[in-house]
Amino acid sequence: MTSLLARILLSIMLLPLAVVVYLAVLLPLTRGNDEVAFTAATSVTAVFVAIYWLMLWRRSVQWTLSRISLTIAGSVGCLFAGVIAGLAAMGVSGIRDEAFGVFIGGLVGAVLWLPVTILVWRERPAERAERIRQSASDVLFCPRCGYNMTGLQLARCPECGAQFTLNELFAAQRHQHEIADAASSAEERPGRASV
Ligand SMILES: [Zn+2]
Fold this sequence. Notes:
Strand content: under 5%
Number of domains: 2
Order of helices and strands: HHHHHH
Distance between the termini: 9 Å
Number of strands: 0
Bound molecules: zinc ion
């Protein structure tokens, strides 16, 4: 299993785990004050979801200043949306129980926050191009046998013995990058993804 696949599976597990955390906090408390129990369960689950999600994906995100600001703004926006949804749910349903409002508000806030972070954290096309360019410029492969020639002082492949001029080597790398580009765009096409 690749680490990306593991993280995708762990992302899918977030929802059932959040339900377990929610119930684990809620059930022992419901004998007392319902409103306190639902508020505590919602708060603890929100913190759990946020930490779990951040731990899972933080290393895959390029943390620029604008992305950090957007993440904070998006989180505050989701918090507001949750509060409004909770109040609206109480108003529309006529259920005057604040525990119900907290439950609906927490649900809406969490369900909104995950896609917001995905949209904000997603790599932009310019960042992707830059990443491919940088990772490609780090290595130099033999055009004939694919041996990694990075760091060699001669333009001769120690593996297959082929001799190149520098411009032949560079031209071949450019060609390799075009193939890599085509392969990675193919990966992004739905239905053909290989994780
Ligand atoms: Zn070679």
